[in-house]
Amino acid sequence: MKYIESLREGERINEVYLCKQKQSALTKAGKPYDNVILQDKTGTLDAKIWEPGSVGIDEFDSLDYIAVMGDVTSFQGALQLNVKRVRKVQEGEYDPKDYLPVSQYDVEEMYKELLSYINSMENPYLKQLAGSFFVEDEDFAKRFKFHSAAKTVHHGFVGGLLDHTLGVTRHCNYFASAYPMLNRDLLLAAAMFHDIGKLEELSVFPENDYTDEGQLLGHIMIGAEMVGERIRTIPDFPVRLGNELKHCILAHHGELEYGSPKKPALAEAVALSFADNFDAKMETIKELFNSAPEGSTEWLGYNRLLESNIRKSSK
């Protein structure tokens, strides 16, 4: 397979890609054409179908896998595909793993490490609660391993939610060892649960877009509700402990202007908000560096999450 990142101007290709987006438009002369965004696991490519409906141009929609034949050109400094032929392909003609961005780490190994933190918990109620999701609920575990942590900002790839959650849990485990005043089990449980609402906030790949529930409620509220519902199935779960855990989830963005319904009022909530913020920003920088030309020390441009122009440091 010819991955998008390896394409060069002047090539003619005949490959299968995921149609991430398709939109009809008109040229300045009023002639219809189609704007198409193609995707594989290495990136996206702008494509144009200048004569939709002509021979060799079959019908297809966004999120279909399509076989395209065309010429790679350049427009305003970016590669573009001039599509000559296109058809919708059937299951068996492609492997979805080739078309979706995925974590660089092994999903099963990451999940195994996450479970080790549950096994290390001493509080029976928090251990049972975490186990009821990550160990006993097979559907939840399957979805959690596959889901992304964001649409575009950070960890927006298959396995991204697990990757981010494990990173935050690692940081929180360190915080608990460095600051004994922290309730380790509460902090670890909060780290594991802080983003589970994203399972409902974002649709699954390849769409990976905000759901109606996600738009109306957001993952923080959804996650707190999911945890609250499961707590009510565990006999004698301490009300005070449940409220502390839900508070950490509700406050994990740290500030009201960043989307948290509550500001952190517990030491564990403060620690979680820093761990979440740190992991998100380090991943954002890593993704910026990975997209930069090899060996480059040029400025990479303003980043909204980091609120700064970024470049690599000198060797």
Round the mean pLDDT to the nearest integer and report it.
90
Write down the CATH topology of the largest domain: Hypothetical protein af1432
Question: How would you sum up the global shape?
Answer: elongated
The ordered string of helix (H) and strand (E) elements is: EEEEEHHHHHHHHHHEE
Spatial sequence of strands, sheet with the most strands? 1-2-3-5-4
Question: Which percent range fits the helix content?
Answer: 25-40%
The major β-sheet equals: 5 strands, mixed, barrel
Structure, described:
The chain is of the alpha+beta class. The protein folds into 2 domains: 4-97, Nucleic acid-binding proteins (OB fold (Dihydrolipoamide Acetyltransferase, E2P), Beta Barrel); 100-290, Hypothetical protein af1432, CATH 1.10.3210. Helices cover 39% and strands 18% of the residues. It has a 5-stranded mixed β-barrel with strand order 1-2-3-5-4. A two-stranded antiparallel ribbon has the order 6-7. Strand 4 (65-75) and strand 5 (78-88) form a beta hairpin. Helix 1 (107-119) packs parallel to helix 4 (160-178) and helix 4 packs antiparallel against helix 5. It is elongated and about 70 Å long. The model has no long low-confidence stretch (mean pLDDT 90).
Kindly summarize this structure in a few lines.
With 315 residues, this protein is α+β, with helices and mostly antiparallel strands.
